[in-house]
């Protein structure tokens, strides 16, 4: 079972690596859903030798970004590439909560050769349009989707059915990474029920001494 932890600082990342975490999603301000971390933070975390996915999200709130915010994301991606980051996560939607195809395609191309993950902006897409979004992402070099299977305020056990549907739609096209409310106490049961081999959460391992 591959366990990915969402962390908001170097100290937590270092502790997670010491505890045997498999992969890190690096953010700052997890209380806001995760924003782009500082350059000094990702540079430090890269020295830990653990696979790292860096969040590229310029602000909290919705995922419909204006041109100035997209420019910030572009600059972040260039800097991440310069620093040798191998995986990034981002998501851009339009005002109708559909994938912003033009911006996503541009950012995916700009990110190359870094590997791209779609974060939980996916969950804001209307349910009846998620399958089309999933197929588009799979065809455009996105390798994984992080999803709760519904609004984050909804308990994970209420998302199981929709997560199963999403996993079935993905088949071998793209990885589905369930997260949000998954922790070290419940991940084994949830992973078994969903038939997945990777899980995500800020408490996916016990960080207590």
TrEMBL record:
Alphabetized, the UniProt keywords read:
Cytoplasm
State the GO CC annotations.
cytoplasm
Q: Does the keyword Cytoplasm apply?
A: yes
Give one GO molecular function term: copper ion binding
Q: Which InterPro entries match?
A: CutC-like (IPR005627), CutC-like_dom_sf (IPR036822)
Name the source's superkingdom: Bacteria
Q: Which Pfam families match?
A: CutC (PF03932)
Q: Where in the cell is it found?
A: Cytoplasm
The similarity comment for this entry is:
Belongs to the CutC family.
Entry protein name: PF03932 family protein CutC
Encoding gene per record: cutC
